[in-house]
Every structure is written in C-alpha cells, then in structure tokens.
Write a structure and sequence with these properties.
4 helices, 124 residues, mainly alpha, single chain
C-alpha cells in the first residue's frame, strides 16, 4: 500500500535534500573564515534552495507547467550544490569520500526530481 503524501515534507526527495543540506551545513562549519562569503554561503544557499523549491513546487502543483518549472529550478540548484561540493573537494576542505557521498546523494535527488517531472501528471 502506498503512503499518502499530504505535504512536501512527506516526499522522499525533500527529505533526501534536507539531509544533504544539513550535512553540508555541518561540514561547512570547518571551512576557513576567508571562505565565509564565497564558498560557505554559496554551498549552504544552494543546498537549502533545493528544499525550498521543492516546497514551492508542491504548492504550485495545481498548474502542471508551473509545477514542473519549479522542479526544474530545484534540479538546477541541486546541480549547483554538486559544483560547490566539487570546489570544496578541489580546495581540500572536504575529504574525497565525503564529497563522493554528497555527489551520490545529489545524483539520487536529481533522479528523483527528473522522475517527478517526467510523471508530473501524477502529481498535478
């Protein structure tokens, strides 16, 4: 039996994005102070925006085009989150295995978002 989705908070993709964003928040606390406004804030903003745009998309699902547009925006910031993780890797602020885990988490999130977009008629 499928569970009833009553809120964006019930979506697996939202929960996966929230988990990744919180991991980035905790990990970024160790970044050097000179990265505060460049890397740290950008990583945190992008990772949090994935969650926020999923929530926005959920509220817009009455209109399929707007719903899919917001999910596309969420895809974009999920990809941006991967890019920021790569910068943290290249700068030596995060260990390889941590970056690989985050990259895999965002690959899963991107796949989930793609599936929702592809099957948007089931959600609207």
């Amino acid at each position: 039996m499928k569970e009833k989705i009553k809120s964006y908070k019930d979506l697996r993709v939202y929960n996966n994005a929230m988990e990744a964003a919180m991991k980035i928040f905790e990990l970024s606390k160790t970044f050097p102070p000179e990265e505060k406004y460049s890397l740290t804030d950008q990583m945190r903003h992008a990772s949090r925006s994935v969650c926020a745009t999923i929530g926005e998309a959920w509220r817009k699902r009455i209109n399929q085009a707007v719903f899919t547009a917001r999910l596309n925006d969420s895809e974009s910031v999920a990809c941006a989150s991967q890019v920021w993780v790569e910068f943290a890797r290249k700068c030596g602020y995060l260990k390889e295995e941590v970056c690989d885990e985050l990259d895999s988490a965002y690959d899963q999130i991107l796949g989930q978002l793609f599936k929702m977009i592809k099957e948007s008629d089931k959600w609207t």
